[in-house]
Structure formats: C-alpha cells, structure tokens
Specification:
The chain is mainly alpha-helical and 166 residues long. It contains seven helices and no strands.
Length: 166
C-alpha cells in the first residue's frame, strides 16, 4: 500500500498530461495535446457513442485528477502541461460533429483548428467563464476543464453551421 502512495503523484501527472503528451512542448503544450487527441480520434472507429463515452470519461477523470494533483503537488493553479482538458475538448467537439454525421477526416481536422482558435483566443463567453471560475468558489480543476468544454461546444456549433449551410 505504501508503494501506491509513492506512485500517486506520478500516476496523476501521467493522466492530467494526457499520457505525458503535455510534457513534450513547453511553448505549445495545449496544441500538442489537442493534436494527439485528434490522432487518437482518427484511429478510433467513427462512433458517436464511443467518442461520447471517452469525452465524458476524460472530463470527469480530468476534473478528479486535477483536483487531487494540483493543490498537493503544484503551486501554479493552471499549469500549462495539464492537457487533459484539451483532449476532452477535442472529444466533445468530435462528439457533436459526429452527432450531425460530419465524420470525415476533414471535419475532424477542421474541428481541431476551430477548437484551438477558440481555446487560445477565448472570446465571450469562454473568458468570462474562466474568470468566474477563478474568482468564485469553484474548484481549480473545474475551471481548468470547463473553459475547454465551452470552447469545444462553440467551435463545433460554428463548424456544424458552416458545413450544413455550404
């Protein structure tokens, strides 16, 4: 049981860095994490149910693991190497485009581009939600996860509208 205690921070960091992908780049860890998630999505069967289940699991796993890791092992409340939120955002976005039967490689790649754009620029309401979470009694880990969820939803809605009207 003592071994588990020693492994806890390593296991948690492995999860929140999305299999250590968040540690590969110091300048663009979110983009690298999103790109890795996109590659995983591209090799998975094009199944709405499968991608939805993974998205939900990533959200709750990310929330829980960040909640356990960050207060105990990290001084920065939103370290850049935490990329499970970007992976979750990619899976949420793809879940939504699969729902509208937009399951081509080009749709998945467009989802990546739009998601990264919204995640980096943080237009309204994403920035407002992020500020609210930092200034109120929400957990740090919820704030880390929710802005990427909102960015993914907005990006996929715009993508669906664009592709359905063209």
């Amino acid at each position: 049981m003592e071994q588990l205690g020693k492994l806890k921070p390593k296991l948690l960091k492995f999860i929140i860095t999305f299999c250590c992908v968040g540690l590969l780049s110091k300048k663009m860890p979110g983009t690298v994490g999103s790109l890795f998630a996109t590659m995983v999505i591209l090799i998975l069967p094009k199944s709405f149910v499968l991608v939805f289940i993974i998205a939900v699991c990533l959200f709750f796993l990310g929330w829980w693991c960040c909640e356990l890791y960050i207060p105990e092992f990290e001084t920065n409340k939103d370290p850049s190497y935490v990329v499970i939120d970007e992976a979750c955002g990619m899976f949420i976005g793809v879940t939504m485009i699969y729902l509208f039967e937009l399951n081509t490689i080009s749709s998945i790649l467009l989802n990546f581009v739009l998601f990264r754009m919204f995640d980096i620029l943080k237009p309204f309401p994403i920035k407002s939600i992020e500020k609210y979470c930092k200034n109120h009694n929400t957990t740090v880990s919820f704030g880390i996860m929710i802005d990427d969820v909102v960015a993914a939803i907005i990006a996929s809605f715009i993508q669906i509208i664009l592709l359905r009207t063209i």
